[in-house]
Amino acid sequence: MNKIKKVIHLGVLPPPLGGISTYLYRLSRLNKEEKFIDVGKIGRFNLLKILIQPNSHFINHIFSFKRLFFIYMINLLKINSYSIVLHGEGSRLFYRNSNMWEKYIMNKILRKAQSIQVVNEHIRSYLLSILPGIDDKIHIKCAFLPPPIEDEENILKTYLNELFIFIKEHEPLIVANAFKLVFLNKIDLYGLDMCINLVAEMKKRYSNIGLIFALADDGNKDYLNEIKEKMKVLQIEDNIYFMTGQKELWPLFKKADLMVRPTCTDGDAVSIREALYFKCPVVASDVCIRPEGTVTFQSRNQEDFYVKVKGNIDGKNDI
């Protein structure tokens, strides 16, 4: 095989902002000699032209059966190679919901990969349970890169003035986030419903508590309106601020007392890594292995969620 001349990353780039797109943006700032392609913006024909470039190594960051099959078939021509990065639970969901034929093809795709990068031991163990003998191909690597501090000034300019007023007027301050409001098996995936109940309960102890909920895509208007109606009933409208749109979140962790992540499924969440990087405590659900320093609670257990958050906030105020 000829010497590989170029490394090409296949994934998504901002906008929109998300865990993978943010990671690839930061990685592109560090690895300027490598190429980064937003596959959702180039079309199938242009993707094909890229994939048939000889002497290339492709690193795929999106777990898509069709795209991986496409890469695998071209790889059979022996003109290039590929690796796969699994940023979350996509592989588990695929094997749970796919038919035998799709699973058979995916097994061949994974075995053919030069390497497979996963974000934690949980995903590695799962892959080895269905694909024994590929231990040497699977590597664990945290998919977090520190944000470029030089971007902070421009990011702060994207925040509305009312957000800064909210921060000034509320204490303790909690931050949570979601890419968009979606459901998994009829459960609020990002746990906005749990955050609302949490604030209502915490307000009994901290009347001035504030929650900033960052929502990149507020397209699910029906559910968001339902949540806002519940906020009125619970009399916590003034305690919650929705930061909507494509905005970076990390500068808020420098101002927050706590970050919460009550998801019902998850991968290696970038927002948790960012919070910990800026010394902001984190309380998160126990649906996956969380980074060291994270306080976990039993997933979808509202009482346990409250106890862990209360313990953290009370502890800070006792200092």
Explain this structure.
With 319 residues, the protein is an alpha/beta fold. 40% of the residues lie in helices and 20% in strands. It has twelve helices and 14 strands. It has helices at residues 19-30, 43-51, 65-75, 90-97, 100-112, 121-130, 152-156, 161-169, 192-202, 221-234, 270-277, 302-318, and strands at 6-11, 35-38, 56-60, 80-86, 116-118, 138-140, 173-180, 183-184, 187-188, 210-217, 240-244, 258-261, 282-285, 295-297. The chain has a six-stranded parallel β-sheet, sandwiched between helices. Strands 11-10-7-12-13-14 form a six-stranded parallel β-sheet, sandwiched between helices. A two-stranded antiparallel sheet has the order 8-9. Helix 3 crosses helix 5 (100-112), helix 9 (192-202) runs parallel beside helix 10 and helix 9 crosses helix 12 (302-318). It starts with 5 loop residues before the first strand and ends with a helix. The mean pLDDT is 94.
